[in-house]
Design a protein that fits this description.
By secondary structure, this protein is mainly alpha-helical. It contains 18 helices and no strands. The longest helix is centred in the first third of the chain and has 32 residues. The radius of gyration is 21 Å and the shape is globular. The N terminus is likely disordered.
């Protein structure tokens, strides 16, 4: 360290989130606000939709089937959305998909206001929403490294995680109250309003056209991204660990039934909010993440602890202990997410970032989506509590096995990794 270099923060200040990306980039601030607002509304619908399905069908399998109808659009549009993000203007993709989500909120609102709401529109909207998210997320994830300095990417990952968790805590907690006392229409209407505000914010950020080196969207371009990912075993490890954790230990589809089984229907909103609350608590003290360099080890450790915490929640008969362990699980998942994001953003070249973001989308979305089917099916066959605790145990075991099979993930070090060094060089050359 040179004499004129700033001293690293210490003590309590070192634990707090680093606001450098916020101060340095106006577009980061606008996109951050847009995400905060739309995420809040999306979490309202996230709770309202399974509650409405439960009320209309009374079936855990029917609620779990949401994941089944979301899966095919996710697989198709996740990969193609990544190719579009590399070839098209990222801002335009984000704006149009955000507007499309608003139209889907209109459909849910109109259906909820009918004297006898239909079941099939809920599945149609879930499938279309999955397609839009699959197109938007690669564009969004690949845009952050363009509007944030390379050295600020760990801080940006923490701030983005904080943004997501604020909506994840407030949205479900409020949704439980709104659905119970005001009705589903109010939840869907609020979601529509948040999408409108988000679009106004996103259209004000700078255009983000394709790189000169980017390939046009095609199967060949998608295959090129897949080959790159396959050649990066440490990246492959992050995908596999997250996929296993979310598929085996994501209990969200059965939470309405768990609340009933515990005779604590009032706790449903708190259950949905507990996982994001744990994530929020971690993000509030996320400054320490910038001083960790072996990101792969943290991904593995935190994913295994997520599974164990979910297992503990499944065996508890006291609702407050269930909420506690769901909160612990959310904190572990946030740690895993932060370090996965840092590895992705600091080591993937710009011309491939959209396609790799599409693969990343599959890794952290397919798991929860199929996991809803698994948890709902297990609950229908063997009971709600068994569905939850068995998934957590299987998750911890699968993550441990993956760690043994993927040594490059465990030995990854951001200070010495050749891909991280290459991206640092590209960013430095771009500033010259």
């Amino acid at each position: 360290m040179t004499d004129d270099a700033p001293e690293p923060p210490s003590g309590l200040r070192a634990m707090l989130p680093d606001l450098a990306p916020w101060r340095a980039s106006r577009d980061f601030r606008r996109l951050w606000y847009a995400g905060l607002i739309s995420n809040f509304g999306s979490f309202l619908t996230f709770v309202a939709l399974p509650v409405q399905l439960k009320d209309l069908t009374g079936s855990a399998a029917a609620v779990g089937a949401i994941g089944a109808v979301e899966l095919i659009p996710l697989l198709v549009f996740g990969l193609y959305g990544g190719a579009l993000a590399d070839a098209w203007d990222k801002r335009k993709l984000i704006v149009w998909t955000e507007a499309g989500q608003g139209l889907l909120s209109v459909a849910l609102l109109l259906n909820a206001l009918l004297p006898h709401p239909a079941v099939w529109p809920l599945y149609v909207v879930a499938a279309l929403s999955s397609a839009l998210v699959s197109v938007q997320r690669p564009a969004l994830d690949s845009l952050w490294p363009r509007i944030v300095a390379h050295d600020h990417l760990p801080a940006a990952a923490s701030l983005n995680s904080f943004r997501w968790t604020v909506g994840g805590v407030a949205g479900p907690a409020l949704a439980g109250v709104v659905v119970a006392y005001a009705g589903l229409g109010w939840a869907y209407g609020a979601d529509l309003l948040t999408f409108a505000v988000s679009v106004v914010l996103v259209v004000r950020i700078a255009a983000s056209p394709a790189s000169h080196e980017a390939a046009k969207p095609s199967l060949k371009a998608i295959a090129e991204g897949a080959r790159y990912a396959w050649g990066r075993k440490e990246l492959l490890g992050t995908y596999a660990v997250d996929l296993a954790a979310m598929f085996l230990a994501m209990p969200l589809a059965v939470l309405p039934f768990l609340a009933d089984e515990l005779n604590a229907q009032w706790s449903l909103g708190l259950m949905y909010a507990s996982v994001p609350l744990g994530a929020l608590l971690v993000s509030l003290v996320s400054g320490w993440t910038a001083r960790i360099h072996r990101h792969g080890r943290m991904v593995v450790l935190s994913a295994a602890l997520w599974g164990l915490a979910i297992a503990a929640a499944g065996v508890m008969s006291n609702v407050w202990l269930v909420l506690l362990f769901l909160t612990v699980a959310g904190g572990c998942d946030m740690v895993s997410g932060i370090f996965r994001g840092i590895m992705w953003n600091q080591t993937i070249p710009d011309e491939l970032r959209g396609r790799l973001a599409g693969i990343e989308l599959l890794s952290y979305s397919v798991g929860p989506t199929v996991g809803q089917v698994r948890s709902g099916g297990f609950a229908a066959w063997w009971g709600v509590r068994t569905s939850v605790w068995s998934g957590g145990v299987l998750c911890a075991g699968a993550v441990g096995l993956l760690a043994l099979c993927l040594p490059k993930l465990m030995t990854y070090d951001a200070r010495t990794d050749e891909h991280a060094a290459q991206v640092r060089g590209q960013r430095a050359a771009a500033r010259v």
